Each structure stands twice: as structure tokens, then as C-alpha cells.
Amino acid sequence: MAADDPLRSKIVAGGTALVLMMRQGLVAPERLIALKHIPDLDGIEDRGEVVAIGACATVTTVASSPLVSSALPSLAYACRAVANVRVRNVATLGGNLAEADYASDPPAVLISLGAFCEVAGVEGARTVPVADLITGLYTTDLQEGEVITRIVVPKPASGTRANYIKYKSRSSEDRPCVGVASISSTSPDGSIASLSVAVGAVAPTPQHFPDLLEDAIGQRLDDSLAEEIAEAYASRIEPMDDLRGSAWYRTQVIRALVKRSLLDTEVGIR
Q1: How many CB atoms are closer than 10 A to CB 7?
Q2: What is the tens place of the pLDDT at every residue in 159-181?
Q3: DSSP labels for 141-195?
């Protein structure tokens, strides 16, 4: 392999994941290409109907942003739940998505909110829905030479309810065993106008099933309907086994947390 082969290079933003992999001998790049000094990659902008978050904005920056807290409270909450303060102060939102770690908090929330990534590469720019970005364990739809430049999140309408519930099965662990994000809005008559649910940390990719929610539109979101949706998600998802929980255990937690998330009004968009 030639010394200037691009596969010998790694792009780094916060480096919280890449440095660990280098220390463990999992990757051995000859050079690191840092993004942190590129102008405008770390800002958070109000673009009217959407919030545009620079890929190099740290998780702490996103969590503490007044704009994100006001317009996207479930995302702000999920970012406050990431790992620990030392990681949050360095890790970036774009890096979090590009790493595609299944046991992560922001992806499920971003999927529930209908977010998409602006991606730039040698062949030009394109947009990728976050729901399509993560394709497997630590794998994404990003092509060679492509980087995420921004994460663009639509602002939910006034009166929308959105939240994120993170469950940790071990007190010493800061990574989720199960994470559930939901968002719903109601019509003037009180029936469901829109509904989205995403479950993270249970499979190689965040689990999101719009088809399971179609029949809920037009109904009232009560205990019975929430239980029905939770059962549908628990039945559809095939969880993995790891140190945080067995597949059987995760199924029980999914069933409980999807229902709780749908009925929870603690985190809302006013």
C-alpha cells in the first residue's frame, strides 16, 4: 500500500472514539486529519424551520445551546445523557453519528425528529437521513472521502411532545442498555396527528418502524394504544446479547420503555 494511500489516513473531530481504538490496536492510521479548525463546522444556526448543527459542535455545546433546548429539548436531554462530562466536552455530534456505535444516545433521538446529515466529499455534496446513515455495527452510508458537515433537524410544531428515555442496566456503566425516543403531535380534536418512535442500543442500527405506527394516526394516545405500540416494537425488534443485557431482557425493557415514552410528558415542546 502506498504511503500516500488515503486509507492510511483518518479524519478526526473530537477523537474520543478513534484514540481509544488506536490505543487498543484496532486501527493504526499513519496520519490524522483534524477538522476542528475548519471555520463554521462547530456552529448552531436557526434556519427558520430547522436547526442546523455543525458536525464539529461538541456534545456539551449542543446540550447547553439555548436554541436546541428550546426547539429540540429531547435532543438536548439526550446529549446531556451521553457518557460523562469529560467525553461530552470533547466528543462531537458529527463524530458520534459517523462512529455508528450502537450503544449511543443521540442517533435514536435524531431519527425520531426526522433529522438528516449534510455530507461533503470529492464527488460533491448530498444529504442523508439519519435513519439511513447507520447501516450496521460501526458502519455507515458514508463513502470514501466523505464527511458529515452538518446535522439538520426540523423544528417540531408547537404542542408537540418529544422525549428520550435512557435505561442503564449497570450503575458503573454510562452507555445505554436501551434508549427510546418518541415524538407525537395531536390534532385539535385530541387525536394523534403524527407519531415517531426510535429505539437505540439494542441492535446494530437504531430501530424505527413507521409502518407500525400508521394505524395509530387519528386515534387518541391512551394507555391501551401505547401498550399496543410497545408490544408491536417489542415483537418486531430482534435485540442483541451483550454485557448490558440479554436479548430476552432487552425485549422486556423495550416493551416497558416504549409505552412509558409515549405517555411521558416531562420533556415537551411548548
Answers
A1: 10
A2: 899 999 999 998 888 999 999 99
A3: SPPTT-EEEEEEEEPPPTT-EEEEEEE-SSTT--S-SEEEEEEEEE-TTSSEEEE
The neighbour count for residue 231, using CB atoms within 10 Å, is: 15
User: 215: which DSSP letter?
Assistant: G
HSE, side-chain direction, 13 A CA sphere, residue 139: 5
Domain borders along the chain are: 7-35+42-154, 161-263
Q: pLDDT tens, 213-234? A: 999 999 999 999 999 999 999 9
Q: Return the sign of the alpha-carbon dihedral for residues 24, 239, 111, 70.
A: negative
* pLDDT, tens digit, 9 for 90 and up, residues 29-46: 889 888 988 888 999 999
For 145-162, how does the pLDDT look when each residue is reduced to its tens digit (9 = 90+)?
Answer: 899 999 999 999 988 999
For 172, the grid coordinates are 458503573
Taken in order 198, 199, 201, 207, is the CA torsion positive or negative?
negative
- Topology of domain 161-263 in CATH is Enolase-like; domain 1 (3.30.390)
Q: How far is CA 258 from CA 47, 163, 251, in A?
A: 31, 11, 11
pLDDT at 18: 82
pLDDT: which is higher, 210 or 173: 210
CATH topology of domain 7-35+42-154: 3.30.465
